[in-house]
Specification:
The complex is a heterodimer of chains A (605) and B (354). With 605 residues, chain A is an all-alpha fold. Chain A has 18 helices and 4 strands. In chain A, strand 1 and strand 2 form a beta hairpin. The relative contact order of chain A is 0.10. Chain B has 354 residues and is α+β, with helices and mostly antiparallel strands. In chain B, helix 2 runs antiparallel to helix 3. In chain B, a hairpin with a 4-residue loop joins strand 6 and strand 7. Classes of the chains: A mainly alpha (605), B alpha+beta (354). At the A-B interface, helix 6, strand 1, helix 10, helix 11 and helix 12 of A face helix 1, helix 2, helix 3, helix 4 and strand 7 of B.
């Protein structure tokens, strides 16, 4: 491929801007399998690549959680089949400590970065930006392709690290040094950690290429009439997500590079006065806390990188299916903006008990709890959007409503943890595990599922099976609460995170029954996710066909494209936009698409 | 065997679910999509309200089952812990009200405003008064929470009282080491390069500092009830965290950067046995920061006791310096100036490294 594809992409781009007649555009360039499915520069295909890679990672990451929940739920039982598969990592059918920590670390890394960052915003930013702002493709199709392939490379390196003799990284997904810097301190800090850092560096390149592309596309390629304030909220959310990523990921890169130096070149950025297993190390003058600052300067915005696209999609889907405008559009944009700004100013709330200066801590408490204000605005606006609507409970809408419920539940526990006084008690307990799994993990997954169910018809011109979708939704929602609600009680009992076994503790051994229950539910929920995956792949080929151009009765531009849009999206001219995206139920009309000119006698809002 | 059996059942369940799902799709085509849509809409709307009701009952049930197993059911064992418990209750109250209000509205609206042909959705794009209301009200509540939080935060992280007992705790993979300053109330200087566990200097104490000669090392932490204690926290290899659940406190142990934490224990271990009704009750130190494969087993024990009990325990202890002297030089039973210099000489080659 290479030069031909690049030229092809270039001429296609030229054609887009110069010719009016695109009806037969597709016939000029017969695409080979390689350029259509593998090294594609079509944003829709790249979106599918991100989504399917994300799904594969989600299965792996989810499976890891099932494995370590086996250990937590059934600490006395042995599963010989585990030894058959994992050998010395599960001697006697019991998960070894090293294996447990490797599983926990990889579960976090995979789901936070590979699924909920790349899989979520990679998919929907790519799919929706050109379609919803009215562009033929991304600003740079080639960089967009590179963005996927760097992600793929990162995936290959991370996947390879699972098969190393000493195992993958095992110091928690936050990879705090000195643990992650010293091979002597942990098996997982040997070669596996280098692979982790290299993979993450590649991932950051991917994320930057993608993010810059998203920003420049949204700023420059909007169709005629599509002012910023006429954009659907998905676009705003993805725009802010990209800004967050572009400004914060480089900091993680620098942190990772310094850690690589400490590991391999004998520097002392994070190391000072260390005696490990009786060995006295020469490093002096570094600060282990420095890494935490660098890490969380990305790590906290990362939470919003995961959450904002879900918020955007939920807003859009909720408005479409309530047949009502989203309530307080400008307040929604404003709160997204406020969250974006605050996301950069709260990182040290992860570090209240590191010995941080208490005076400094006070500012981080204030700024952290400030985030609750825009979050509250969003929740109340979603509720008001539902109020007096005419709600169609499509699978996408079910997940959108589920998202709001989870966002409330997980958001409120954030008020506990953001307050440093309470954090002294609750830090690194199961309360934290429950909190971030609900608000960032499950809620974002719900946003992602809502997006998949809503835009699947646009991606594959077919519907997902509804019955399986309903089962998927209800089991996942009920399961999520059954798993994470009781965990708050473990947290209030002070149970520390990342313990493989509580039986030796007087203070923490009272939850054996609850752990068994949680593990069992987790396995059921995982099985139902596999049902979704099956539904996904089955429906790509055998799903019910989409027969109408605009199946959901939606205002946004993607539904003005043909049922199966080609490369370039619109066969003719790109439509012009005359109004915002949320004229639902206005003047007695069910919906008024953005492309319809404003009538002379139309009421103002 | 049973594993394969479970897998077979799972596979069967998959196939059945899939067949039902496919069949229902055909049925919906036959019945008319409009009719199926309405039917599904009614079912899902009903399920939302059922989920709300059952969820609230479930939450109640969960609470009655597990409340007693949490720390909420027993008093905090330190003065700081009491403040934290009050703060916790306040936050639970405020967020609890918001939680109930918003979740009930959410699922109630999803049920109440489900699709019917009769209703037209109400075009309602924005309302400045409403939006101002739910900006200002949460802001006020948060201000209250921040206010209380900061007031306690500065109390807890503020300076320890002058008469505090000083105790040093050092974490390493995977246990805790305790050191008391002895009669002079000053901890001897340390230098990590002097660490030599096989010669009785696991902490890397610099014996040339005279203040170290009466320091007492232990594996268990003994504290006096109602007497403030000032912890000096260190780590040797990786980051650990001194987690004290019953006192509701924790603080990281960071290699190269000593941290501190102070509190006043309120109940002796014996008293806590009565309060909790658990005859095996013991104050535990847990490591709360991932520190390697033995992280889950990094356990320490604190004994809170009366002044007399403490004094008795302390008088049974010999300063580590003396122990080291005796093993290095069995002839000399008591330390004198000559042995001090001898030890200093032994340590010199290492000390020069600095």
């Amino acid at each position: 491929m290479s030069s031909e594809t690049i030229l092809h992409g270039h001429t296609a781009g030229e054609a887009v801007h110069t010719h009016d007649d695109h009806a037969d555009h597709g016939h000029h360039h017969e695409e080979s399998f390689l350029t259509k499915y593998i090294f594609s520069q079509d944003h829709k295909m790249i979106a599918k690549q991100f989504l399917i890679t994300g799904i594969i990672w989600a299965i792996i990451g989810g499976l890891f959680s099932v494995l370590f929940r086996l250990q937590l739920g059934y600490p006395d039982m042995s599963f010989p089949v585990l030894e058959d598969i994992f050998g010395r990592w599960a001697k006697g059918g019991r998960i070894s400590n090293e294996f447990y920590y490797a599983l926990v670390t990889m579960h976090g890394t995979i789901l936070v970065f590979f699924v909920l960052t790349a899989g979520l915003s990679g998919t929907f930013a790519n799919l929706l930006i050109p379609l919803q702002i009215g562009a033929r493709d991304m600003a740079s199709g080639f960089l967009n392709m590179l963005s996927y392939w760097f992600f793929f490379l990162a995936s290959v390196v991370m996947f390879a690290s699972l098969f190393i003799q000493t195992g993958p990284a095992a110091g928690g997904w936050t990879i705090y040094p000195p643990l992650s810097a010293l091979g002597q301190a942990s098996e997982g800090s040997k070669l596996g950690m280098d692979f982790w850092l290299i993979s993450m560096a590649l991932f950051i390149v991917s994320s930057l290429l993608g993010g810059l592309n998203y920003i420049s596309t949204i700023l420059n390629l909007r169709t005629k009439g599509m002012s910023m304030t006429r954009m659907p909220l998905t676009m705003w959310a993805i725009f802010f997500t990209a800004v967050l990523g572009v400004l914060s990921f480089p900091v993680l890169l620098s942190g990772a590079v310094l850690l690589l130096f400490d590991r391999n070149l004998g520097t002392s950025f994070y190391l000072s006065e260390i005696v490990v297993k009786g060995e006295i190390l020469p490093n002096e003058g570094g600060s282990a806390i420095l890494f935490q600052h660098l890490f969380w300067f990305l790590g906290h915005p990362e939470v919003y990188i995961i959450l904002l696209p879900a918020m955007g999609m939920v807003s859009e889907i909720m408005s479409v299916n309530s047949r009502k405008p989203i309530f307080g559009y400008l307040a929604m944009v404003g709160s997204l903006f406020a969250i974006t700004i605050l996301a950069f100013l709260v990182w040290a709330h992860h570090m209240f008990v590191t010995g941080l200066n208490p005076f400094l801590g006070a500012f981080f408490v204030l700024l952290t709890l400030l985030i609750a204000v825009p979050s509250a605005i969003k929740v109340f606006n979603w509720l008001t959007t539902l109020w007096r609507g005419n709600i169609r409970l499509t699978p996408a809408m079910l997940f959108a409503i589920g998202f709001v419920s989870l966002f409330i539940s997980g958001g409120l526990t954030g008020i506990f943890l953001g307050n440093s006084t309470l954090d002294i008690h609750l830090h690194d307990t199961y309360f934290v595990v429950a909190h971030f799994h609900i608000v960032m993990g499950v809620a974002s997954f719900f946003g992602m599922f809502a997006g998949v169910y809503h835009w699947f018809p646009k991606m594959y011109s077919r519907y997902l099976n509804n019955t399986m979708a309903y089962i998927h939704f209800w089991v996942t929602l009920v399961g999520a609460y059954l798993i994470f609600w009781p965990m708050h009680y473990q947290g209030l009992a002070g149970l520390p995170r990342r313990y493989t076994d509580f039986s030796n503790w007087q203070s923490f051994n009272q939850f054996a029954g609850m752990n068994k229950f949680i593990s069992t539910v987790a396995m059921i929920v995982f099985a139902v996710q596999l049902l979704f995956v099956f539904n996904f792949f089955y429906s790509i080929f055998k799903g019910r066909k989409v027969k109408s151009q605009n199946p959901w009765g939606s205002n946004t531009l993607e539904w003005t494209t043909p049922i199966t849009p080609g490369h370039g999206n619109w066969p003719g001219e790109i439509p012009e936009v005359h109004r915002w995206a949320y004229d639902y139920g206005k003047d007695g009309r069910e919906f008024i698409p953005q492309v319809e000119p404003v009538g002379a006698d139309e009421s103002k809002h | 065997m049973s594993g394969y059996f479970i897998l077979a059942i799972l596979a069967l369940a998959f196939v059945v679910t899939f067949q039902i799902a496919k069949a229902s799709e055909y049925v919906s085509v036959l019945k008319g999509e409009e009719k199926t849509f309405k039917q599904n809409n009614r079912i899902n709307a009903f399920l939302f309200i059922a989920f709300l009701v059952l969820g609230l009952i479930g939450a109640w049930w969960c609470n009655s089952m597990y409340y007693g197993k949490t720390l909420l059911a027993q008093p905090a064992a330190s003065d700081h812990g009491e403040k934290i418990d009050f703060m916790l209750m306040l936050t639970i109250a405020v967020t609890g009200v918001v939680f109930l209000l918003t979740q009930i509205l959410l699922f109630w609206f999803a049920y109440k405003y489900q699709y019917t042909e009769k209703r037209k959705a109400y075009f309602f794009a924005h309302d400045n008064k409403l939006e101002l209301l739910w900006t200002v009200v949460p802001a006020i509540f948060l201000t209250v929470l921040v206010g209380f939080g900061m007031f306690y935060w500065f109390k807890i992280t503020g300076d320890s009282p002058k008469d505090s007992q000083i105790v040093e705790i050092t974490g390493k993979q995977f246990n805790w080491m305790i050191r008391y300053p002895g009669k002079d109330k000053v901890l001897g200087r340390k230098n990590y390069r002097l660490t030599d566990a096989s010669n009785g200097n696991a902490l890397g104490v610099d014996w040339e500092d005279g203040a170290s000669h009466d320091d007492i090392e232990a594996t268990e932490m003994h504290l006096v009830v109602n007497k403030p204690v000032h912890l000096v926290i260190n780590a040797q290899d990786v980051i650990h965290d001194v987690g004290l659940v019953h006192f509701r406190l924790k603080m990281d142990a960071v290699p190269g950067i000593p941290t501190t934490l102070w509190f006043t224990p309120k109940y002796t271990t014996t008293e806590m046995k009565k309060i909790t009704g658990n005859k095996d009750f013991v104050y535990e130190i847990s490591c709360d920061q991932m520190c390697g494969s033995g992280h889950y087993s990094m356990r320490g024990v604190i004994v809170v006791e009366t002044q007399e009990e403490y004094d008795a325990w302390m008088s049974s202890k010999k300063p580590q310096y003396v122990t080291v002297q005796e093993s290095a030089n069995p002839a000399a039973s008591t330390p004198d100036s000559t042995t001090v210099t001898k030890v200093a000489e032994v340590n010199k080659p290492i000390a020069k490294l600095n």
